[in-house]
Batch of 2 targets.
Target 1
Amino acid sequence: MKKVLVGLLVIMVMIIASGYTYYKMNYGGESYYVQVLVNGEREETTADDHTPMVIYHYKLDSFNSTGDKKLVKFMASHNLRNRSYLKLTYNKHKGVTNWNEVQEKEIPKPALKELQKLEN
C-alpha cells in the first residue's frame, strides 16, 4: 500500500512540475517597460464569428529592469493613452504575452532613465 501511495505521489509531482514548466516556457517571461509616445497602427479586421473589430499594432523600444533595450511588437484592442507607461511580459518564444499600464514610480530606475531619454 505504501508503494502505491509513493508511486502516486511521484506521478502527481511530475505532472505538477511539467505543467509549471510548460506555463513558464509559454506564458512566463521577463518584464520590460515602454512609454507610449505614438498612436498604434490601426487595422480593421473580422473576428472568427465575422464581427468587425479594430486592432492597434505597436512597435516600441522597451527596457528591462537593468536598462537593456529590446524592440517589441504587440497589439491592443484600443488605441493606448499617449504618454502612458506599460509593463510588458516578453517571452522569447511568443513575444509579448501580456501588458499592463503602470505608474512612473513602479518602473525600475534604470528602465525609467532610458525611457526618459526617448521622450526628449
Target 2
Amino acid sequence: MTSSAQREIFREYYGLVYGIIYYMVKDHATTEDLIQESFLHILRRMPVIDDEAKLKGWIRTVVKNRVYTYLKKNRRLREEIADDSIFVQDELLASGTESIEAEVATKLMSETIGQCLQQLKPEYRALIELRWQQELSYKEMADILETSEESIKYKLHRAREAVRKRFIKLWGEREDARRIR
C-alpha cells in the first residue's frame, strides 16, 4: 500500500471519529492522541466485514469504548468533563487543524441528537433534562417526581435507549444520503 493511500485512509478515519472523541473529552490534544491510539487498535483487530455501514458502526463502537477506557483511567479529566454540559453546544471550539468536514459532522450530530430528544415522550425528555441539564442525582430526581430511585434508573435507561435508537436511525439515513451525492 502506498503512503498516499495510507494517508487517505487515515484522513477518512480522522474525519469519521474526530467529532465523536472531541465531544467526549473536550480537549483537542487528548482527541488527537486517542485518534492515533484507537486507529492502531482498530488495525490490529479489524474484522472481515463486507458492509461499509457495519464497518463504520464497528469502528465508532471501538472508538467510544477506547475513550471510555481512557476516561476511567484518567479520573481527573472525567470529573472535569462531568462539570460541563453533556449536550453538544451550538458553538464548536474548532482548532486550526480541525477539518471543516469534522466540524460539519459534529454540527449534524448535534442537530440529530436534538431531533431525537424532541421525538421522545415528554416523561423521558423531562428525565434527561433533570439528569444532564440540571445535573440532579437519581435520589433528587426520585424526590422531585415522588417515585423510587429504581424507577428513575429504569426510565432513564429506557430514555437513553430511545435516543440511541432514534439517533442510529437518523444518523444512518444521513450517512446513506451523503453516499448517494
